[in-house]
TrEMBL record:
Name of the protein: NADPH-dependent 2,4-dienoyl-CoA reductase
Gene, per the UniProt record: fadH
GO MF term set: 2,4-dienoyl-CoA reductase (NADPH) activity; FMN binding; iron-sulfur cluster binding; metal ion binding
Entry's family note: In the N-terminal section; belongs to the NADH:flavin oxidoreductase/NADH oxidase family.
Domain NADH:flavin oxidoreductase/NADH oxidase N-terminal: 8-331
Listed InterPro entries: Aldolase_TIM, FAD/NAD-bd_sf, FAD/NAD-binding_dom, NADH:flavin_oxidoreductase, OxRdtase_FMN_N
Keyword annotations of the record: Flavoprotein, FMN, Iron, Iron-sulfur, Metal-binding, Oxidoreductase
Gene3D superfamilies according to UniProt: Aldolase class I, FAD/NAD(P)-binding domain, NAD(P)-binding Rossmann-like Domain
Gene Ontology terms: biological process: fatty acid beta-oxidation, unsaturated, even number, reductase/isomerase pathway
Domain FAD/NAD(P)-binding: 378-643
Length: 673
């Protein structure tokens, strides 16, 4: 029998130990590191991924000392009494023949607390705290702390450590002129700037001995001004190898970079080209990262000799059994990461526990548990959008008889509109996954089947779940019924042609999506070379940070994105992805106006008032993207008939289209019934 992914599933011999395949679960902070009893939950989280077949897991970042913590109560491994809780994780992983490394992360100027230190006293744009410049003594002590942390990790049963030298954290801050303005032996020339990283690597290797994995996370593309030169990246890679590294993992972009590196609009495998170049210059295995979310992408990168391993973090949040499904030839059953960031990175940056939009059980393995139903029920679900799909599948898995109805001829609800937006092509994958899962779990699907209270009553359901979604909110101003005025569904669902000048009323997620849709002729997400040009990534690497002048974008439409609120347009978008959406539309000349009062629409266009000044936008069309209302017309009739009814998704709360909440709500209800 042929192996479906021969390169991806091939063991990797590291000399003193062997990894069972080429999949590395990349580091991702979950927030459980700081929660009460969080390490019990973390152990279950990592155990699920080890059981699912991952070759090597890397934990979220753990600080080697107090000043390096992410936040005031951030996790650190610096004392013998810290070891016991980490042992819970390593024991859980080793039960399934898994291997796990602890990531040692000192945040430097990215620390979100007043005790931050850095090479130089330069405030980071993403933190309100200005760091203190480290003294010589602090530098030498910090090097010892990295070694101490590695030794404690070894005692805790970890198979290795990853030294975090990228993403703009402390080690990376020493390496780049952008953040290192020192004039002593730790700054100035490249040799001086690299000294801190190399001394840490030597100290760590000396502390743990030779039969222990040390991964170094090397910043290959800083994507910020005054970052690395290409020659410095290669030189450092060779020196890191000589200092005792077992593996080199790729680091792409600083957190403050104005180039997106992981959001859904980034092409799949967009950065494997730089890993390939570094790999040619060293003899130890090198790991490719970022936007590798299918076994096919991973296999292609490895088959082309661009890397020796592939790192996936969010894809293993989305599906703990990713590797096992790939090995079994069931890749079409993988719950694919759509790189939305909404429940993972956005949560972490808001000091909430991470999870996953498409997999609400991620980081809730001990809490959101699907036990076999004690008594099987006959359940009717109305609406096959994300909420209805999630509920139906989980409920059927528990043993209930589930009938899923939708008036449309296809599943997906609002996801069918989202998947059309340039840069959101990944949403196709979620609908493919649910389509397969409905069949696997035995949900009886009834499409083209609009339900009434009477039709549902004849089915004698024990429970009815209304996941009927939303209807667009109507607007109330003079001329709202003018032929120029259309709704967002007219554009995304019915593909109504619009004129060359368009005003969008409403600048929430839908407004931004429609703006992207009507200003993009073909998606650069599907063309990596064009995407690099648009964002100014210099593949020739002729300048520091691999940055060049971004390509100017043009659109055949003149578009205004308007909102009543006086706050910044797009403020409500995702914390880690909203800036990308705003930047993308600004590149295309979309004009964003806040504090707008809508006066009227007439043959001339849309009349508005901003800051007390009335003006005419001479547009051909006005698209209403002004929010939604819940669609729950069946609820009262069903309840009056004595039917047990539950509302989930947009039918429950329609403030914004929120697939994250909808899918979680569906899962939680399924676990409870």
């Amino acid at each position: 029998m042929t192996t479906p992914y021969p390169h991806l599933l091939e063991p990797l011999d590291l000399g003193f130990t062997t990894l069972k395949n080429r999949v590395l679960m990349g580091s991702m902070h979950t927030g459980l590191e700081e929660e009460k009893h969080g390490f019990d939950k973390l152990a279950a989280f990592y155990e699920a991924r080890a059981k699912g077949g991952v070759g090597l897991i890397v934990t979220g970042g753990i600080s080697p000392n107090f000043r390096g913590r992410v936040q005031p109560f951030g996790s650190e491994l610096s004392r013998p009494w810290h070891v016991a809780k980490h042992r819970k994780i390593t024991d859980a992983v080793h039960k399934h023949d898994g291997k796990i490394c602890l990531q040692i992360l000192h945040t430097g100027r990215y620390a979100y607390h007043p005790f931050a230190v850095a090479p130089s006293k330069l405030k980071a744009p993403i933190s309100p705290f200005t760091p203190k410049a480290m003294s010589e003594r602090q530098i030498l002590t910090t090097i010892k702390h990295f070694a101490r942390c590695a030794k404690l990790a070894q005692k805790a049963g970890y198979d290795g450590v990853e030294v975090m030298g990228s993403e703009g954290y402390l080690i990376n801050q020493f390496l780049c002129p952008r953040t290192n303005k020192r004039t002593d032996r730790w700054g100035g020339s490249f040799d001086n700037r690299a000294r801190f990283a190399l001394e840490i690597m030597k100290a760590v290797r000396a502390a743990v001995g030779k039969d222990f994995i040390i991964i170094y996370r090397l910043s290959m593309l800083d994507l910020v001004p005054e970052g690395h030169e290409y020659e410095e990246v290669i030189r450092l890679a060779k020196q890191i190898e000589a200092a005792g590294a077992t593996l080199i993992n790729s680091g792409i972009g600083w957190h403050e970079a104005r180039v997106p590196t992981i959001v859904t609009s980034v092409p799949r495998g967009a950065f494997s080209w730089i890993t390939a170049r570094v790999r040619e210059q060293v003899s130890i295995p090198v790991v490719a990262v970022n936007r590798i979310n299918t076994p096919e992408i991973g296999e292609e990168i490895l088959a082309k000799n661009e890397a020796d391993m592939v790192s996936m973090a969010r894809p293993l949040l989305a599906d703990a059994d990713f590797v096992a499904k790939a090995a079994a030839g069931k890749a079409d059953r993988i719950n694919t990461c759509i790189a939305c960031n909404q429940a993972c990175l956005d949560h972490v940056f808001e000091n909430k526990r991470a999870s996953c939009l498409v997999n609400p059980q991620a980081c809730y393995e001990t809490e959101l548990v699907m036990q076999p139903a004690q008594a099987a029920k006959r359940i009717g679900v109305v609406g096959a959008g994300p909420a209805g799909l999630a509920f139906a599948c989980y409920a059927a898995e528990r043993g209930h008889e589930v009938h899923l109805y939708d008036a449309s001829d296809r599943i997906g609800g609002q996801f069918n509109y989202a998947k059309q937006i340039p840069g959101k092509e990944e949403f196709h994958e979620t609908l493919r996954y649910f389509d397969k899962r409905l069949a696997d779990t035995g949900v009886q699907v009834h499409l083209n089947s609009r339900q009434t209270a009477t039709s549902l009553a004849t089915e004698a359901f024990d429970e009815v779940v209304l996941a009927t979604g939303v209807v667009p909110r109507q607007v109330d101003f003079a001329g709202a019924d003018h032929p120029k005025v259309v709704g967002y569904l007219d554009v995304l669902r019915d593909h109504k042609e619009l004129g060359p000048k368009v005003a969008l009323i409403g600048a929430g997620g839908i407004g931004f999506d429609v703006a992207e849709y009507i200003t993009t002729e073909h998606s650069p997400t599907l063309d990596a070379e064009e995407w690099n040009e648009i964002w100014g990534i210099d593949k020739a690497y002729e300048s520091r940070g691999a940055l060049t002048q971004p390509k100017a974008e043009s659109t055949s439409r003149e578009v205004w994105l308007l909102q009543r609120k006086t706050s910044k347009v797009g403020k409500g978008l995702g914390k880690t992805s909203g800036w990308v959406h705003r930047a993308t539309l600004k590149k295309k000349g979309v004009q964003m106006l806040a504090g707008v009062t809508y006066k009227k629409v007439d043959d001339q266009g849309l009349w508005i008032e901003v800051d007390g000044n009335e003006q005419l936008l001479a547009v051909d069309n006005v698209v209403i993207c002004a929010g939604q209302l819940p669609l729950r017309e069946l609820q009262d009739e069903l309840q009056q008939a004595g039917q047990s009814v539950h509302l989930i998704g947009g039918a429950d709360v329609a403030a914004e289209l929120d697939a994250k909440r909808a899918i979680r709500q569906g899962a939680e209800l399924a676990a409870a019934l």
